[in-house]
Amino acid sequence: MYKYSNALITSFLLASLTGCAATQTVIEHGKLVTNTQQSKTIFLEPVASNQKTIFVSVKNNSEEDIHFTPALKQSLEHKGYKILKSPTDARYILQANVLQVGKMSASASQSALGGGFGSAIAGATAGTAIGALASQSTTGMVAGGLSGGVIGLATDALVKDVSYTMVTDVLISEHQAKDLKKYRTRIISNANQVNLKFSNAKPMLEKGLVKAISGIF
């Protein structure tokens, strides 16, 4: 009887702890949070309005269907730039390459940012772990208190802190007399929320990227 009571108490505590963990996750990550970072700041010298011409080339090497080129061109046009079809005729040549889009841990995201333009991406996808409690078991739980712990763990597993990251390398070339000056940076766009779906993260990631790239000009 004593062992059985201990099993029930252990089970109740496990269920309570996992329930608290799920609640804490919702409190901390309930709202969609986005941020965009550059590995290197780019400063372009001011030019006359008639020199504000740009050729835009965007490539997507990720597995996701990303479309932000129209929004990027529109943003540049609002800044007074004329989009040209020929790179040789433009003052600036803007090239952006989306390298990776998907779930990524915070450490992998910062590693990709720190590596800068052209560096390899760790590609550590953020898995959803129930936690150490999932791997723990006691004789008491097996004896009679397993159901409570399982319910708590199942509840906790349904509440996931999900982060999506988009990694983009940006190369800007500027015609200066007979020279071609080049600027390089990597842009990391993040979106984080409880149980976040990519369909909801995608427009925010694209919006952040457009703002970051057009903000250079």
Structural write-up:
The chain has 217 residues and is of the alpha/beta class. The chain has a domain at 31-126 and 161-214: Double Stranded RNA Binding Domain, CATH 3.30.160. The protein contains six helices and six strands. Strands 1-6-5-4-2-3 form a six-stranded mixed sheet, with helices on both faces. A hairpin with a 2-residue loop joins β5 (161-176) and β6 (179-194). α1 (2-29) runs parallel beside α5 and α2 packs parallel to α6 (198-214). The protein starts with a helix and ends with a helix.
From the structure above, extract its key features.
217 residues, alpha/beta, Double Stranded RNA Binding Domain, 6 helices, 41% helix, elongated
Order of helices and strands: HEEHEEHHHEEH
Rg is 24 Å
Strand content: 25-35%
CATH class of the domain at 31-126 and 161-214: Alpha Beta
Low-pLDDT ranges: 7-17, 124-149
**What is the overall number of helices?**
6
**What's the arrangement of strands in the largest beta sheet?**
1-6-5-4-2-3
* β-strand number: 6
**Could you say which overall geometry the principal axes of the C-alpha atoms support?**
elongated
Outline the biggest β-sheet. 6 strands, mixed
- Please state the average pLDDT score: 81
- Could you say what the CATH topology of the domain at 31-126 and 161-214 is called? Double Stranded RNA Binding Domain
What helical percentage do the residues reach? 40-55%
Quick gist of this model?
This protein has six helices and six strands. By secondary structure, the chain is α/β, with parallel strands linked by helices.
